[in-house]
């Protein structure tokens, strides 16, 4: 695919248009917004005209018409339960185009496309590891894929040019491309995405039956572990159904570990907790420590340890923005951020993760600017 230059940055853009995006939801609209900003011609097609119209209004491209130019690349951005049908139809409708899909399951889609006898040489699956807890066009954003992994999943017949096109697409939208086989991809996302979604949702389901007094005690830990529980149930049902075998295997391992802790809790021994209870909980916590330590750091690099600075933030409009401005004026980068705020409280606590060699300097400079640093 020939390189063009972005009208905004002057940098080379590897993706050649026109690009047709089928499905103008969160991923499709976000992709269209980014490519359009780079100057790539983008067209949108969705079964709901109001959805594609909204995406067009947001700058994601133009509505696909019968007289629109033939696409060089077709991106199927529909839910996984209908993605294979859309891929098959696109390969037939546009015989000169490379066709990809961005669904979060790959093996089942590849199997259906192959079974239909479609041209596998022009098909290459993809999965940008990006999203939000809220789905839908209205939540699309052009930087959704920035610094996120973009998995490229070719099949044994995919031509090299199609793989190169996907690598260019990933780089153009700011992602980090990597290549996996379909089975490896599905096994991996079961662990890092699908099971976490189920665990978060199952935990949050307990809140539906909780006493109001209990909910009033909720802190940041509960919010962190249930954040993704507000995801779209219909979409996730389709995702997990498409990866049922691997999700079941991972969930069984989780259930086995949970059962060991549960058994120890239900059989604590005498009045004093037995070593089996303490040992089971300690083992679970230590294994969790080891797992967290293996999660890659920013941009897929090695895990990094940061020093935390806690800043008192009054519950007033614009205060958080002023804090960011104050930090920005110091020239020190915020590596991560958590905000703790209890309902009704007059202030919250911003927990800033900073490089250890810059943390003391930032705390001192913020205090000079009038911000109150909370001792850890």
From TrEMBL:
Reaction it catalyzes: prephenate + NAD(+) = 3-(4-hydroxyphenyl)pyruvate + CO2 + NADH
Residues of the ACT domain: 308-376
PROSITE patterns: ACT, PDH_ADH
EC number: 1.3.1.12
Keyword hit for Oxidoreductase: yes
Pfam family, one: PDH_C
Signal peptide: none
Annotated InterPro entries: 6-PGluconate_DH-like_C_sf (IPR008927), ACT-like_dom_sf (IPR045865), ACT_dom (IPR002912), NAD(P)-bd_dom_sf (IPR036291), PDH_C (IPR046825), PDH_N (IPR046826), Preph/Arog_dehydrog (IPR050812), Prephen_DH (IPR003099)
Pathway as given in its UniProt record: Amino-acid biosynthesis; L-tyrosine biosynthesis; (4-hydroxyphenyl)pyruvate from prephenate (NAD(+) route): step 1/1
Gene3D superfamilies: 6-phosphogluconate dehydrogenase C-terminal like domain, NAD(P)-binding Rossmann-like Domain
Alphabetical keyword list: Amino-acid biosynthesis, Aromatic amino acid biosynthesis, NAD, Oxidoreductase, Tyrosine biosynthesis
Domain (Prephenate/arogenate dehydrogenase) ranges: 17-295
Domain of life: Bacteria
Family: Belongs to the prephenate/arogenate dehydrogenase family.
The name this protein goes by in its record: Prephenate dehydrogenase
């Amino acid at each position: 695919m020939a390189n063009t230059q972005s009208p905004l940055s002057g940098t080379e853009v590897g993706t050649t248009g026109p690009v047709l995006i089928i499905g103008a939801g969160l991923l499709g609209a976000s992709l269209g917004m980014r490519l359009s900003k780079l100057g790539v011609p983008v067209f949108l097609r969705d079964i709901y005209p109001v959805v594609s119209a909204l995406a067009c209004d947001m700058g994601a491209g133009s509505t696909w018409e019968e007289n629109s130019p033939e696409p060089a690349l077709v991106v199927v951005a529909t839910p996984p339960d209908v993605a294979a049908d859309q891929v098959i139809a696109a390969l037939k409708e546009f015989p000169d185009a490379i066709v990809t899909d961005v669904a979060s399951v790959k093996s089942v889609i590849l199997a259906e496309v192959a079974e239909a006898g479609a041209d596998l040489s022009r098909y290459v699956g993809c999965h940008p590891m990006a999203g939000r807890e809220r789905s839908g066009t209205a939540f699309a954003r052009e930087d959704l894929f920035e610094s996120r992994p973009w998995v490229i999943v070719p099949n044994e017949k995919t031509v090299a040019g199609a793989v190169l096109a996907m690598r260019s697409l990933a780089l153009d939208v700011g992602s980090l491309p990597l290549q996996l086989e379909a089975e490896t991809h599905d096994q991996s996302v079961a662990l890092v995405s699908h099971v976490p979604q189920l665990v978060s949702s199952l935990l949050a389901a307990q809140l539906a039956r909780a006493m109001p007094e209990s909910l009033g005690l909720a802190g940041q830990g509960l919010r962190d572990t249930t954040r993704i529980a507000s995801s779209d149930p219909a979409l996730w049902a389709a995702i997990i159904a498409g990866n049922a075998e691997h999700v079941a295997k991972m969930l069984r391992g989780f259930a086995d570990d949970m059962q060991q802790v549960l058994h120890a809790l239900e059989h604590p021994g005498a009045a004093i907790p037995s070593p089996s209870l303490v040992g089971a909980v300690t083992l679970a916590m230590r294994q969790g420590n080891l797992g967290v330590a293996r999660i890659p750091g920013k941009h897929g690099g090695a895990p990094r340890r940061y020093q935390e600075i806690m800043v008192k933030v009054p519950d007033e409009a614009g205060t958080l923005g002023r804090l960011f401005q104050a930090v920005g004026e110091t020239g020190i980068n915020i590596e991560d951020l958590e905000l703790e705020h209890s309902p009704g409280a007059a202030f919250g606590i911003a927990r800033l993760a900073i490089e250890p060699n810059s943390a003391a300097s930032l705390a001192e400079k913020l205090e000079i600017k009038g911000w109150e640093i909370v001792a850890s």
